[in-house]
């Protein structure tokens, strides 16, 4: 692998799954990479929504995969099969859907599906920002690139922040144009990280930035070429509070399902499947039985869209009261994202990714695949800071050794 010397073979994955209302970016972005840059793109994604899983691996699961052949114009329909086959008219790519996490998809793609073939890993574009530590640590999009970085592959996590719903179609087109430009520039002139000289001894990424997190907003005026501004950033530090709320046991049918596309009966003789119907009330894909007589291509979308908090915090709700009555513990994912997405301007530190997005800039954050460590003064007890009493300074033994 030589950075920028040739058109790379790209592994494209994500955490939103195949094309669907909650995964509207990956199909058009994959086409943009191919048509604009002429890059060879291999797509391996989870078969359903896998947001907020970080870099997790479900090690007790047996991972199953199927082949998906998305069709024009938006990839929402296409045939799913258990075996690979030649492309048909109207198909441009063969995708692989796996019943695993984003990090699992990246690892299987790199080491089982395309060993020694991939030059660059791109995860995304996520439908939602992954700026600030609260989102970044939880992000399956970034989690996939952390996993690929551990295998010494240069990686880019790409996220599109949603500001307006529905997202204007032209905003996604402009976002893809901007993202392709940023990705091309990074690949052609990949950054250095001298702190990696020793820690990655023998790795192809020694002395190199391991991964980048790229965030932009789906706002047309910020993405137009004459207004576009790209800045280097650091991750803004923040946190979150309550993520789950009580759920009425008699309303469990409304919870966030993670139904798998691959769990549907695949077409093994060229017969396509019905697309899962979309609920008019929830905007989600409703469960559906297999239809062997169907001729309509299958929707490759996950069972539902990303979870959305319903209503505000109302203190002791009927849900809480219902739980107290029957003693059951039932919770659903219902976070209040507003403080994370719309922080107070005075709290934004200049040069951070959240600050950049607040001003409409495209944020590019170099990252290492490791936990951040505090300064040297953390290597002693709090009472010893500034007192010249740290173990490595007072003769109690080897550097950093405690005296018990």
Automatic annotation (TrEMBL):
<feature type="compositionally biased region" description="Basic and acidic residues">
    <location>
        <begin position="390"/>
        <end position="404"/>
    </location>
</feature>
<feature type="domain" description="Survival protein SurE-like phosphatase/nucleotidase">
    <location>
        <begin position="10"/>
        <end position="240"/>
    </location>
</feature>
<feature type="region of interest" description="Disordered">
    <location>
        <begin position="243"/>
        <end position="325"/>
    </location>
</feature>
<dbReference type="GO" id="GO:0016787">
    <property type="term" value="F:hydrolase activity"/>
</dbReference>
<protein>
    <recommendedName>
        <fullName>Survival protein SurE-like phosphatase/nucleotidase domain-containing protein</fullName>
    </recommendedName>
</protein>
<dbReference type="InterPro" id="IPR002828">
    <property type="entry name" value="SurE-like_Pase/nucleotidase"/>
</dbReference>
<dbReference type="GO" id="GO:0000932">
    <property type="term" value="C:P-body"/>
</dbReference>
<feature type="region of interest" description="Disordered">
    <location>
        <begin position="384"/>
        <end position="404"/>
    </location>
</feature>
<dbReference type="Pfam" id="PF01975">
    <property type="entry name" value="SurE"/>
</dbReference>
<feature type="compositionally biased region" description="Polar residues">
    <location>
        <begin position="276"/>
        <end position="288"/>
    </location>
</feature>
<dbReference type="InterPro" id="IPR036523">
    <property type="entry name" value="SurE-like_sf"/>
</dbReference>
<dbReference type="InterPro" id="IPR027746">
    <property type="entry name" value="TTL"/>
</dbReference>
